[in-house]
Model the fold of this input.
Amino acid sequence: MVTGVQVVDINVDPVDQRRRRRRALSRLGIPIGGVTLMVVAILAIALYSDRVNRVGALALSDELLAALQQRIALEVTDYLDAAAGVLRLERDAVRDGALAEKLPLIETMSSSLLREVPQTTNLLFADAAGNFVLVRRGEAGGTEMKLIVNPPGARRVTWIRYDDKGAELGRADDPADDYDARTRDWYIGARGSDALYWTGAYIFFTGHVPGLTVSARYGGADGQPSLFGVDITLDALSRFLGTLEIGRHGQAIIIDDTGHVIAAPHGSAVQQAANGDLATARVDQLGDDVLTHAYDRYRIDGSGHRAIDVDGRRYISAVTPISGAGRNWSVMIVVPEDDFVGFIARNDGRTLALSLVIVGVATLLALLLVQQGFRADRSARLALDRQTVMSRQSAAFATLAADAGLIDPARNDPPRSLTETLANVTGARRASILRFTAGERILRCEDCCDRDMGGHIDGLELHRDELPQLFAHLLAGDEIDVADAAHDVRTAELHRVMMRTFGTTALLAMPIRRHGRVVGAVALEDAPARAGNRDFVRAVANMVALRLGDTAAALPARERGAAPDPAAPHETVARSFVSDLRPVEIDPTRLGAEIFRDVAVMVLRFTDATAMALRVAGGERCLSDEIARILQQVAAEHGIPYLKLVGHEVVAAAGFGKADAAAASLIADAALAVRDRCAALFEDSKHVADFQIGIDCGAAIGSIVGSEPRMFNLWGDAVTVAQTMAASALPGTVQATEAAYRRLRHDFLFRQRGSFYLPQVGEARTFVLAGRL
Done:
């Protein structure tokens, strides 16, 4: 069973903590709750308003569609009633008599009727013998009459043209015309009844336009019935439907009970039938998915208003029969629902946008209220903390005053009660009393109290040589208060030497002055930023100044840190600052700091450092000495100006001149020579060839550095990449970058090694240098 131990911070009052949490919640909760309620109320009002407005708009749309359907029905009825009136007028005028006897009357009356009733296209007259008369509009206001005489002998079809005054313009026979009115629907349907007969929509034989015919019979002189007919085109109805504005995207069509289109606003309703004849189109042949869906619902549910969904969009569909005209005609209207209620969504969006402005203002006011509340709480806490600190400081001063011996200069015991009081009152993790000794070269710790550990340290000494910045600022009387001692130039050395060991970060150091001279310091580590801490520490520093006194002169010479006798002899130690293997090739006085754009660099790396110290078989020199001699010989033979040994790596470079185009070849030849001679040396000494060579060509930086003897140092990208090539090369081989390969591929033999990732360059190819071509 695993048990846990709860860690309790005794410096925190749980009751006060809960009280602060409740106060913070109230400061935040009331304004946020008010804004939230406002947002919820606005959303609720917006949703309710949207729903009510949408219902009202849809109700108005139903009334609008009903009125529109009534208007269309009235227009259709008026359109057709005029043609029916023409038919009745003809029947009453002609009455009994043979068709041939009535031709003058038919001719005169038909011309007048065609001019007065524009929706009539053709006037038809037929009898049971097959005689037929058709009168239609002609050119320039005239008329044309088609006369079919069907006697027992030969059948004759004649076209007679009249001008606008009724004068005959000409005649023409049409022997190819085989029209027989007795086979037509308008004749057959009206022959058995005295009532008007309406045909369905069809394509006229003459004119090839969609229309319908109303016909009626009358008695002839021979007792055989004759028939009158009036052809009515539907183009006018289609044009009328096209003028209707039903929302922004709505449309209305007139259909019959079989689904054929009588009139449509989007053009002709003529379709090619399967047998090659022209016929009126069905609704599902118009290519309009919305109309097809609406008609399908009409066939299922019958007439009425309903909503349909097509391709994720909602439409209102209304189908109403037209009474008193045609054969079972109906008006079908479809209109997107957004055309009627879209303005509601737009208005709701504008209303919400304006509401957001109000919410934004309310939120800003709430934030200001919260900020003001927290500021008041913070001020109250600061005042309470200040009062608490002042109480603690007063108690501390009373304690210090009760023990006057703490500031007695003659006392040698550590002032532990003083540092404990400092740590407890200020809340610092560590509190220290420091004294300058040995001629202000040493800062000695009189006592240090670690409040967390409950322990004391004394006698710790800090030397001026290791903390020059801290000593300089303290002796100058500067008060040091830093939150991060590691990144402040005044305290970085102290943090490195001591504070990092104890894990402290912040430092407050107050100089202790006596007679205008700094004799020590009071130091607090990781002290919280409480009001009055600095003043309290400053007061304690003034008190401690009496205890420290001016006792440096009474200290022995050893403690005062007497300076060494300048006449004392110093031991001479042999030192070497030179790592160049070819110092004679580069004169440091002639080269300043410069960027060399095209330097060839070779890096020789030894992987076994201990093997370098082994003696060569049969010789007195070690392996590293032999290798250094080989490198010097190779550099001299190939004219390598820069050759430097650093640890277990050797760096060689060439190409410091502006026109030194052969630098890459020099380095490559030197690398091959070093490879062969080092391999032979390792083989003779019976050691594995634990060396790697890398070369690169590119930019590098060179500069003379140091004092006498001054040295020339080389660094930069070419050196770094060459080191990377050496570190990743196979033992005993020379690995080159792609930059070196491009310069050397015409004169040297390479084999591809693979790809390698170079920082700031990315993936690049590497090659193994095999030899010279």
Observations:
- The CA atoms of residues 257 and 365 lie 67 Å apart.
- The first strand starts at residue 120 and ends at 127.
- The chain is about 40% helix and 25% strand.
- Confidence is low (pLDDT under 50) at residues 1-5, 551-578.
